Amino acid sequence: MEQKRLYIKNSFKLPDFLFDAQTGELRIYKRSLPEDAYNTFGPALEWIEEYLKNPKKETKLIIDLDYMNSSTIKVLTYLINRMKNATNTKLTVYWYYSDEDTQEICNDVKSITEADIKIIPKIKD
Fold it and tell me: Which fold has domain 6-121?
């Protein structure tokens, strides 16, 4: 059975998710300031577990968060590790940042996970 797309539009403080099993593209965007990030990311984590049963050869995880808190960083680190360690897909992460603090976080997560993370500056208008 074909896996459905996951689209979750959240409130101002929570991220939006757009995951597409057909293209292998997973987007997390907007901002992420939840008190309980594992609860906020729960549906996305469940979707990923299902996706990893029959993923595309290559998976793109695109993270484009304006703001994020420490619990979000923990969940993103877990998610990246989980996907990186899957043997049936090659994960590439495209992580956009707009300030030095976020760039440092990206570098820390890249170092911790040893994942293929492309750290990309946002173009300012």
Answer: Transcription Regulator spoIIAA (3.30.750)
